[in-house]
Each structure stands twice: as C-alpha cells, then as structure tokens.
Design goal:
There is one protein chain. The protein has a seven-stranded parallel beta sheet, with helices on both faces. By secondary structure, it is an alpha/beta fold. The chain has helices at 23-36, 47-57, 87-96, 108-119, 132-136, 161-176; strands spanning 4-9, 38-41, 62-66, 79-82, 100-104, 124-127, 155-158. It is built from six helices and seven strands; from the N terminus they run βαβαββαβαβαβα.
Length: 178
C-alpha cells in the first residue's frame, strides 16, 4: 500500500471565497491522489469536501477524520471516523495517521495542523498561491525548508498539482527503501 496522504486547508462553504476559487485545483489534486494513495482529510466542508469529491471521482479512498460526533461529514468520504474530540485534537489524529501532509491555504486550524505535521517529523507540502498560512509560512522557513533549527522534517513548496505529485512520488520511493 502506498503512502497515506493527508490534505488540510480552508474549511467553509464551497461556493464562497476563498474556497470557491480553489475548486479546480482541489478536484484535480483529489483525482490525482485518489489514483495512487489513500487520502485523509478533516472530512468536513471546504477544501476537504472538494478533495474528497475528486478522490471519489476516480473511485479512490478518502478517510474523513471528524471532530465531535462527525455529524457534519461531507458526502464524499469513503469512511468517516468520528473522534469525539475537538477540532485541534482531531487534527492530531489526522497527522498521526498519515505519512505526509499537503496544505492548501488555511486559517489558524490549518496552521496548527502544519506545526503538528512538522512536530511529528512528517513531510509537509505547501501548495503555494492558495492563500492563508500556506503563503505566509515560507517567509519564516530556515534554509528555505524547515520550521525550526532542529530540522526535524522537510517543508516542500509546490506551485502545481503536478509538482505535489512529483514530491509524493519521491517520498514514496524513499519510503520503499527503508
């Protein structure tokens, strides 16, 4: 089984900004990921819903890690895990469950997830030009690649879905060598 890949980012109505303008890139990412990987999201609305829909479009597997009782799960999840936990604690379950994380835009919840990814020594891929914390974090990276001086895990920057897939392919090949 290949890498398990988490996707994090903006929540909110898919017909409202900033999510609406990211629709095409999220659907494309979901479709590309769904062909090659098991995908994990927060399972709710916003980019989580759009990526899940893309995964579903290609009959892939998307696991939604939901806060609380999971009553606000999107319809495109293959499987919903209702953690009973609040949003932040749910995010740690998601990060612990995957091999790498892709971030798209995002507000404070996404920032928490990005830091948790790094703290858990997992690769983080920033899909740039999607706004929010994804486009703020690069200005503080050490050596253009790390969130602190311990250099615990790489932070990659991709400017297209194709670049995201190239990074994941390289990560998957490294994983196979272990």
């Amino acid at each position: 089984m290949g890498l398990k890949v988490g996707v994090i980012g903006y929540s909110g109505n898919t017909e409202s900004e900033p999510v609406k303008s990211l629709r095409d890139v999220c659907l494309e990412l979901g479709e590309r990921l769904g062909k090659n990987y098991v995908v994990f999201t927060g399972g709710r609305d916003g980019i989580m819903e759009l990526v899940s829909k893309g995964v579903r479009n290609v009959d892939g597997t998307c696991i939604g890690i939901l806060p609380w009782e999971g009553s606000d799960a999107n319809e495109y999840n293959s499987l919903v895990i209702s953690t009973g936990l609040d949003f932040q604690m749910r995010s740690f379950v998601l990060v612990k469950s995957v091999d790498a994380v892709i971030a798209i835009g995002g507000e404070i919840g996404t920032a928490v997830e990005m830091l948790a990814t790094y703290a858990n020594r997992k690769p983080l891929i920033l899909l740039r030009n999607t706004g929010g914390w994804v486009d703020k974090i690069p200005s503080v990276l050490i050596d253009g690649k790390y969130l602190d001086n311990r250099k615990m895990a790489p932070v990659y920057q991709a400017f297209s879905v194709e670049q995201v897939m190239t990074i994941l392919d390289k990560l998957g090949n490294v994983d196979k060598c272990r």
